[in-house]
């Protein structure tokens, strides 16, 4: 009964939205098209994006924003169906977008870039954000940036950097923000009901595993980072690899590490070309998502899976739009969704 | 009538005079400014079209809104900062706000002020910074049990000592990797929920260690050379330094007192004017301007027109025109200006809790106030407890919501009145009748049936009054369907009355009006209820009889009919609770009285008297308060009151 009270409404909503997401067939059609205009026309005639394109926006920048906002609306709808710990969980989940926003600011500031360019790309919701983006847009240095986020949870973790030469600290600041996000998410999951907790810890664990693998691989391959540092930056809470394994990875030879991973659950990460690693990781998660909803019971899984799939769909659509814009031939290679996958 | 009429004032003035006019209108505290563009876009902004106004009208083509001036906030912040270090709280009063109002001048004054006191403010902020630093260093308190000279530790030849915060999570990470990290990481204590560590590593590994610590988010605390010593000495030193700077701060404040006293009035004036300036600026964003003229729209109470004219006359070359609220476009919502006399005013709070009346609805506050006082009194009738409630209302007025306390004093009067009638004083019955031996007393517990019947009759009277309100409200809006044929209209009254007569005749076995006739009336009334919409449309000679198809209409009105009968029954029965709570009130005290008798001693008696009365006033008082509200909101307001209005909120300082 309790489960019905907590989840019935959100699950019904999520299921309805899930049904509206694009099918493989839609992707096939979209890939056949030749221009951005045609993509927009297809989306507005055949999909749930129909309502978005009322005033023929052809500028792909604002298009991106429109679709992201569409996605955020979906999130806000789900958010309103939940209370207490579940609401906190959704809030934590979406802190990621805020963290990404802040990272964009940090990077731009460290390179003395103009902030005007990023602000048009940002998307945020007042549901979870207490950052004042207007004052953030006015800042000209990292010090001012820190002043502008005073009073938010991010200030506490970034404040220690205020004393240092800030531009060289951007890497560490980003790491701290990321870890803050994972800790918050982890904490919010612990407050959920037993079954939901188990489900979400598993999903988070898989994500963390993949991120750790990527971190160790890239850290070893491209950066001059000691094994100790490497280990210190790995995330806790992995599903498959605990700290002992991670420590072993950090001190392992790079090729051995690669070989080890290829024999395990996450082999697909290294199966493709190296610059496709990011996509391979996303694809892996995308196809794991269905495992979480297959038992069919009421749980937090369905809404969360919807959010993941929705986001991946939007990213694929961006890829398709950009691909058509620059007349790229093999767009399907870049998609998170694998159109050749057998079922 | 308690809802006063509002009028829309459209003002055109010269742009230079705009600020002063807005200021005067704010000080009047009777104008609610609206976005002038609403009026202009609706084609509503009217000024008399005559030759002499030609300039103003022609000019309207290049009309633009005014933007917010962000500088004002900044200047106020600057002034706040200066005043804070001077420890002076300015006195904002209206009298300072008259006279010249010029932002540039104010800005200069603020600058001058901050320069004048800059030496002082600098020293204050220096001391405050120092104190903050010392406060941070209080972390050394967690070292107090370690007896080592930190100067020696700091100056080791082959080892580097670092002292600082580390998160628990990261400390764990470090300990998981001890086999690779060549350092001693020692937990020395917890300070304000942060973990404090000392890290000792060989000097040859400084660079490597620095990077590792970096990746653990280690926050080093620099103790400063002058500070080093044994923890005990360092703590002592911190304390004495803190005391020194604190003393210095107080000294500075003493020193400045005289200076401030001299210029306190000018600071007050400056501050008041700045506050006014920021208020003016908020309103300025609602104003439309052209190169030479400004256009203002505002709601004002109709009765206030003359006063407004008088104020505006002071400024030359100004055009004012007024419109009644019903002349204003329907796209601009008319606020409701409630004005009740002092006795009923507090009850506005409870009415507004349900909803603010529409501007063309009758204000139920007076009816509510009277009937609520009556109902509360009837349910909570006790002379002594009524006095307590009145006293509570009077005493708490300053501390708690004033309106709520006003309500307390008024319902306390109701309680006293019924207390006398019920012959009850702090729960003790037959006390009042001994002093005042008149045959007026009705003790609820002796007259249970009478109480219940009386409460239903009282409820019916209230219901009939609500019907009256409902019919007046609906007919005023020209709503024939609901006002005449609807269940809360004339038809509803007829139906309720016939049912009551029929029931009364059956119960009393009377037959002064033939039953058949009553059935006939009820039958007609029911048919009218069923066909109210097509009937109304036919009377209005509309083309379509049904707004949304006949089928769905009859299904809906069929259910509506069922609900009508149910609600007639439940509405009337609901008022039994007035009698029931009157009985309950006595019953509760009897329970405490019995407890007191069981204890037997005088002390127990007194204790139970107090405990009983406190519980009854707090608990039953609350329950009765809510039940009264419930009766009103559900049984009465739902009949006639929509409460979809917006309160008239004049712009003030």
Number of helices of chain B: 24
Main sheet makeup of chain B = 6 strands, antiparallel
Radius of gyration of chain A: 21 Å
- Total number of helical segments of chain A? 17
Distance between the termini of chain A: 35 Å
| Mean of all residue-level pLDDT scores of chain B | 86
Overall, the morphology of chain A is globular
* Helix content bin of chain A: 55-70%
| Strand segment tally of chain B | 14
Give the SSE layout.
The complex is a heterodimer of chains A (343) and B (653).
Chain A: H1 2-20, H2 24-32, H3 36-46, H4 60-81, H5 84-110, H6 116-119, H7 133-136, H8 142-148, H9 153-158, H10 170-190, H11 194-222, H12 227-233, H13 243-251, H14 254-262, H15 277-293, H16 301-325, H17 331-334
Chain B: E1 3-4, E2 6-14, H1 18-28, E3 32-34, H2 36-41, H3 54-59, E4 64-65, H4 71-86, H5 103-116, H6 118-136, H7 150-154, E5 159-165, H8 168-176, E6 184-191, E7 194-202, H9 206-215, E8 219-220, H10 231-284, E9 288-289, E10 293-301, H11 305-313, E11 318-324, E12 337-338, H12 347-354, H13 365-379, H14 383-395, H15 402-422, E13 424-425, E14 428-429, H16 432-435, H17 448-476, H18 480-485, H19 490-508, H20 515-530, H21 532-539, H22 550-574, H23 576-599, H24 602-640
Summarize the structure.
The complex is a heterodimer of chains A (343) and B (653). Chain A is mainly alpha-helical.
């Amino acid at each position: 009964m309790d489960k019905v009270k907590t989840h019935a409404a959100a699950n019904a909503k999520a299921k309805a939205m899930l049904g509206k997401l694009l099918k493989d067939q839609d992707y096939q059609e979209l890939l056949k098209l030749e221009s951005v205009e045609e993509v927009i026309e297809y989306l507005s005639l055949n999909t749930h994006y129909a309502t978005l394109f009322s005033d023929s926006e052809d500028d792909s920048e604002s298009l991106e924003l429109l679709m992201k906002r569409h996605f955020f609306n979906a999130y806000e709808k789900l958010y309103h169906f939940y209370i207490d710990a579940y609401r906190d969980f959704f809030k934590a989940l979406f802190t990621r977008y805020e963290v990404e926003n802040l990272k964009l600011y940090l990077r731009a500031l460290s390179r003395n870039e103009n902030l005007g360019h990023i602000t048009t790309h940002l998307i945020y919701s007042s549901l979870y954000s207490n950052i004042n983006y207007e004052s953030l847009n006015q800042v000209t240095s990292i010090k001012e940036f820190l002043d502008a986020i005073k009073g938010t949870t991010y200030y506490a973790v970034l404040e220690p950097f205020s004393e240092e030469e800030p531009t060289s600290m951007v890497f560490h600041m980003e790491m701290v923000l990321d870890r803050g996000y994972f800790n918050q998410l982890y904490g919010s999951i612990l407050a959920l009901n037993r079954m939901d907790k188990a489900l979400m810890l598993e999903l988070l664990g898989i994500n963390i595993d993949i991120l750790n693998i990527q971190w160790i691989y890239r850290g070893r391959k491209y950066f001059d980072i000691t094994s100790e540092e490497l280990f210190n930056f790995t995330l806790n809470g992995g599903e498959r690899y605990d700290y002992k394994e991670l420590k072993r990875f950090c001190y392992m030879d790079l090729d051995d590490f690669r070989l080890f991973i290829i024999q395990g659950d996450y082999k697909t990460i290294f199966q493709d070309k190296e610059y496709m690693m990011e996509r391979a990781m996303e694809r892996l998660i995308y196809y794991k998502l269905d495992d979480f909803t297959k038992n069919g019971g009421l749980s937090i899984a369905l809404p969360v899976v919807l959010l993941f799939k929705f986001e991946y769909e939007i990213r694929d659509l961006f890829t398709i739009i950009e691909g058509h814009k620059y007349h790229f031939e093999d767009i399907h290679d870049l998609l998170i969704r694998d159109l050749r996958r057998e079922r | 009538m308690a809802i006063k009429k509002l009028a829309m004032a459209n003002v055109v003035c010269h742009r230079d005079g705009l600020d002063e006019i807005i200021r005067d209108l704010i000080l009047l505290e009777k104008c609610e400014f609206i976005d002038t563009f609403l009026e202009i876009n609706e084609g509503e902004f009217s000024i008399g079209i005559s030759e002499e106004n030609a300039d103003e009208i022609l000019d309207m083509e290049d009309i633009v809104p005014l933007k917010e001036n962000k500088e004002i906030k900044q200047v106020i912040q600057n002034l706040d900062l200066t005043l804070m270090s001077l420890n002076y709280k300015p006195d904002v009063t209206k009298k300072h706000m008259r006279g010249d109002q010029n932002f540039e001048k104010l800005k200069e004054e603020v600058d001058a002020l901050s320069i004048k006191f800059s030496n002082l403010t600098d020293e204050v902020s220096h001391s405050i910074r120092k104190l903050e630093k010392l406060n941070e260093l209080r972390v050394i308190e967690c070292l107090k049990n370690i007896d080592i000279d930190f100067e020696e530790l700091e100056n080791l030849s082959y080892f580097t000592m670092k002292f600082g915060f580390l998160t628990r999570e990261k400390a764990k990470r470090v300990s998981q990797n001890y086999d690779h990290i060549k350092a001693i990481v020692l937990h020395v204590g917890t300070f304000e929920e942060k973990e404090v560590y000392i890290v000792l590593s060989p000097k040859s590994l400084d660079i490597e260690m620095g990077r590792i610590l970096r990746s653990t988010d280690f926050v080093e605390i620099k103790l400063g050379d002058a500070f080093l010593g044994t923890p005990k000495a360092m703590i002592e030193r911190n304390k004495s330094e803190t005391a020194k700077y604190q003393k210095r701060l107080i000294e500075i404040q003493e020193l400045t007192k005289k200076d401030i006293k001299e210029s306190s009035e000018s600071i007050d004036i400056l501050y008041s004017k700045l506050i006014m300036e920021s208020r003016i600026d908020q309103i300025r964003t609602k104003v439309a301007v052209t190169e030479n003229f400004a256009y203002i729209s505002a709601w004002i109470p109709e009765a206030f027109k003359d006063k407004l004219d008088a104020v505006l006359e002071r400024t030359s070359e100004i055009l004012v025109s007024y419109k009644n609220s019903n002349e204003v476009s329907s796209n601009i919502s008319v606020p409701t200006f409630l004005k009740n006399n002092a006795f009923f005013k507090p009850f506005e709070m409870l009415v507004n809790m349900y909803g603010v009346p529409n501007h063309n609805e009758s204000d139920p506050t007076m009816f509510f106030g009277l009937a609520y006082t009556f109902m509360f009194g009837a349910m909570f009738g006790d002379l002594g407890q009524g006095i307590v409630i009145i006293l509570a209302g009077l005493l708490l007025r300053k501390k708690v919501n004033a309106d709520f306390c006003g309500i307390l004093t008024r319902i306390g009067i109701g309680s006293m009145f019924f207390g006398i009638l019920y012959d009850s004083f702090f729960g003790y019955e037959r006390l009042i009748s001994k002093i005042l031996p008149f045959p007026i007393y009705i003790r609820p517990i002796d007259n249970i049936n009478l109480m219940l019947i009386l409460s239903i009759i009282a409820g019916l009277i209230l219901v009939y009054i609500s019907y009256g309100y409902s019919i007046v409200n609906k007919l005023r809006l020209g709503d024939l369907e609901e006002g005449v044929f609807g269940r809360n209209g004339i038809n509803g009254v007829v139906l309720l009355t016939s049912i009551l007569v029929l029931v009364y005749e059956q119960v009393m076995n009377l037959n002064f009006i033939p039953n058949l006739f009553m059935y006939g009336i009820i039958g007609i009334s029911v048919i009218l209820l069923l066909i109210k919409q097509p009937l109304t449309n036919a009377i209005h000679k509309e083309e379509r009889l049904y707004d949304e198809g006949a089928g769905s209409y009859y299904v809906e009105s069929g259910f509506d009919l069922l609900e009508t009968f149910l609600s007639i029954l439940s509405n009337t029965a609901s008022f039994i609770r007035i009698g029931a709570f009157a009985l309950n009130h006595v019953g509760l005290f009897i329970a405490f009285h019995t407890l007191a008798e069981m204890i037997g001693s005088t002390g127990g008696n007194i204790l139970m008297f107090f405990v009983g009365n406190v519980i009854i006033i707090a608990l039953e008082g609350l329950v009765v308060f809510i039940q009264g509200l419930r009766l009103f909101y559900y049984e009465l307001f739902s009949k006639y009151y929509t409460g979809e209005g917006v309160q008239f909120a004049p712009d003030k300082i």
